[in-house]
């Protein structure tokens, strides 16, 4: 097999066919609208239903709950195809929230929410971060006060992906502020349609990822049924987040490797066409060496990522490996894309060039879902 035709060990005929249909959908239905999505700072409202119809939402959720019935391999295929096409669409968050419901929801909650999430009739967000608490989640202040069969919720969250369209928010709140730290936190599923006391701010002005919305959300005496608590008892939210964050971190690793590979491919094409001193840039030894270094890092990252995916599918992936994947793969992604910008010269700094957008888009990968400093703490704890 040629060096460039590497195929992941988790790939099989069925996942290959799935990739084919995801690629067709993304190229036809999403890629042509990216400039507009970026301008309006978020996807079209009907993008979710279209994605649901195409079967790209909840690819690794069992069919009995409306999902695709696949494994994390299918989720990875979706994320890789979006990254390949330079499309930012929060379907990873949709899957993440679905996995919280799958893991901790009652049968009734699963049947109520999962099929609608899979069809794109509901859009999910996960809301942990607050203006005053990100890495230190135990310091969150949003509170849910019990009042009969309802929680009365007050507080605000920031940097919430998908918030413009989200109507099902997995919310981290303190259900018992008297308790210390993690035991005070619970996860409550908030159905936001026509919910009095709930408000979404305008999409925040980010430096990249403009096609995906990120907003503040506000709760002012919003009443949510106690039946929407996840996990049957209060005080389990922190442990639930710690259990589910590795899934989200591996999703980020998948996007990191796919976009690094794409950067190398785009840049290789560019330097073979662009001429300086009478010959293509590719004929300069520095260009070839830099591309070879980028390719080596991307491939090593790919092989490590694949080993994590195989272990996740087998139910054997440990938290430290996921932290290592999130940390190393996103640092590598940023390093590679930065080199690729350099190889593009001034055009690499122009936002109309995909590599420039990838540079701005990739920076946040080292920050969200647990910053890379927090990832290093998790790795160090395991030593
Ligand atoms: C585009 C975008 C989308 C996001 N989407 C979501 C979302 O959908 N839902 C959601 O809940 N959140 C979301 N976030 C929030 C994100 O997860 C947080 O920004 C992140 O966890 C960091 O928290 P913070 O911003 O409060 O930074 P801080 O916690 O204030 O950290 C600032 C710096 O201090 C460092 N630091 C903090 N603690 C330690 C420590 N113990 N040791 C060493 N260094 C440390 C951090 O690594 C960082 O470099 C998103 C953020 C962005 C930018």
Strand content: 5-15%
> Strand sequence of the main sheet, in spatial order?
2-3-7-6
Query: Which molecules are bound in this entry?
Result: flavin-adenine dinucleotide
Mean pLDDT: 97
Quantity of strands, as a count: 9
Low-confidence segments: none
Report on the biggest sheet. 4 strands, antiparallel
Question: N-to-C terminal Cα separation, in Å?
Answer: 38 Å
Structural class: alpha+beta
Radius of gyration of CA atoms, rounded to a whole number: 21 Å
| Count of individual helical segments | 11
Question: Could you please describe the fold and organization of this structure?
Answer:
This protein is an alpha+beta fold and 383 residues long. It is 48% helix and 14% strand. The protein contains eleven helices and nine strands. It has helices spanning 13-30, 34-40, 47-53, 72-84, 91-104, 107-119, 237-273, 285-313, 319-344, 354-362, 372-381; strands at 124-127, 143-147, 150-161, 168-174, 185-191, 198-200, 214-225, 275-276, 279-280. The strands form three sheets. The protein has a four-stranded antiparallel beta sheet with strand order 2-3-7-6, with no helix packed on it. A three-stranded mixed beta sheet has the order 1-4-5, with helices on one face. Helix 5 (91-104) packs antiparallel against helix 7.
